[in-house]
């Protein structure tokens, strides 16, 4: 694929680091999606937008695929070089350029780790609320590419709600600024929002200006154990109907908690034998007395269901423990078995119906699933466990089961992915949500931005 | 333009009301933009999405322009039939389909008046925060088409932040659903956000599902009189730096207030002679004691500047009066003089510099301007007053002045329109913000959605 003329042009880009050794190619050939491995043919690590522009210009002329690589924490295979070509690692765009205290904005390179960004602005009393579970290693650019969500989305929204403006490089090397650093904008088509969630298929995002909020200084965290998992899902909607908007409302099935407790040492959480699900509920604000008053009222909402004693976290350490338990589930499942993860999302009231449907479909196809996720915004992660399923069952029956899960999700007013993106592993399910004319509109947009189809080929769109 | 075969096909659409009388054509040929009049050749009033689809299909085959018409409150001429053709009045899509208390969403026809929608959901304790000044007559569909903002955007965001899903009709008559009724969505390109703010040039929007919030039950409103208008602008940024996020923070120049006071009867507001600008500041929430405490702290932020006595509105009636004063400014200016309104927006800290620059440019070209707007989000409405300028000055010098205002706005990190859209009157200023390759991307998208260019031609894009 990589001709000598292509390589020599690439090597003529001043100060661009290129790697072709097997170890590097393998390293950049996987992310957190199952056990997939798609090494690129070459890895480049530009450090400036001009270098990105030069790489794309050459790749476009030679029609070589370019896959933008971030923190490699993706769960849909979005950053895997499934067609080979260039792995464009953004890791050197790791500078926070400006924390703008006057306008409550931050301008950052897209390879800054999300947690690093959140911590940096917090030091100035500012809040970047988007907190995917992988925040300790994912890049802000990957969050933008996949429109990442996380646990605070029910109150604070998702990545798209914070992106004001992007610097991006088009397939032909043109550098654009998508919008303006303003809270309001009604000036032409919203290319900023079009790039958010476009999974590296429309442009390479090199810099982002994000909206910030004042940091809420207080929070209350409680763990509510339910004997019946469907009731836990029902309670989610009851919380909002009662007028509360928690800053987090997480659902965990019994299995999810057990696996997390086994996986993480020293988690000081005891779960009674008859408990089948938990809600982890956080309220935040600036007035602790008011939060405690609200939390008390919230308890009476939960007490209408069959619950065990509610645990109030009474120290920062205990809060960290509870969040660690929640955030370890994905890794715990991965350590336990081969699995496939789906990222279903529905209007939150439809959660009980979705959960019951998933269990029914599991029974039909003979698979076990572990479900957990951001119930407050209707986003349920479904881990389908391989366990002792045969290769044939895994390859043939499971995709049928997943198809039925997605059909149910769409029938309930939901969609295929809430925050992980479609990437490589979900792309062939896209026709369940979108008719051909809709996919053709998206293909048309893709073609405007990237007529040679070099940017992240083999993603989002179903195989022909 | 309208051939017999076209008219007979149109008249074959069952139950579609068509109008060609001069009175109707003139009525639908203007909005609130200056004194412009561009009557369509025919007005149709579909009542169903199938009728919209049928109209577009025929128009597309015959290549007849279609302009979607809403509440005709636009300020950029977005709904004017500048190329003639069909005026597609959406007024019969005026049903709220469902207020979904379980998921805090509303699904509505796009011809529902914004205030009607806000009142309807408020009766259920729910809040649709977007409140353009024209909310008493503008349609929610027009708000979506222009990405309308309003006074609460600094805390609650703009229209785009509430649109979850749209039903829309493409130029060829295809009916699509753009997204899903979910808070999170990472499933393909975000066509929902692409249609928001696209000013009727990509599709006809027939139904919208909008996110709602619990209604904040309490608020505090205060009017802060400043002796120096630049200091009033500076104070805006100081409020946020001190950790406050008011629900409204409006700026009004002295002239704006004087004109509003003359225009509206019985406004019980007295302004001292040495006051040159006001900030109208609202805090909202659910705990009145806490709001009053915050308001007191906020006063000390303002007291660092040269201000007169702060007025606290002590009754609902007084609050309504202050808001009426603010909302009447546009009409008052219109009643006073021929004018042109620009809708500049910058990062909020740049407001004082923008305001001073506008006055400097006004002095250079000999025009008076009245400035007011949503200072909390950096959105300043600039009314350029014709007064006794000659026709030549008005036609030749003023556009040069506007060009300089926009150049300054862009240089300050801002953009041409915060919430009114580009429409007809701002389109030739687009190259100030966007280089050709950027406009070409937008044109490419337009071409994917509307290859024959029938949807709202002559808008957004600069003349060739």
Automatic annotation (TrEMBL), chains A, B:
One Pfam family it belongs to: FAD-oxidase_C
Named cofactor requirement(s): FAD
Superkingdom, taxonomy of origin: Bacteria
Keywords recorded for this protein, A-Z: FAD, Flavoprotein, Oxidoreductase
Residues of the FAD-binding PCMH-type domain: 36-215
Entries under InterPro entries matching the protein: FAD-bd_oxidored_4_C, FAD-bd_PCMH, FAD-bd_PCMH-like_sf, FAD-bd_PCMH_sub1, FAD-bd_PCMH_sub2, FAD-linked_Oxase-like_C, FAD-linked_OxidoTrans_Type4, Oxid_FAD_bind_N
Recorded GO MF terms: FAD binding; oxidoreductase activity
Protein name: FAD-binding oxidoreductase
Organism in which the protein naturally occurs: Flavobacterium aurantiibacter
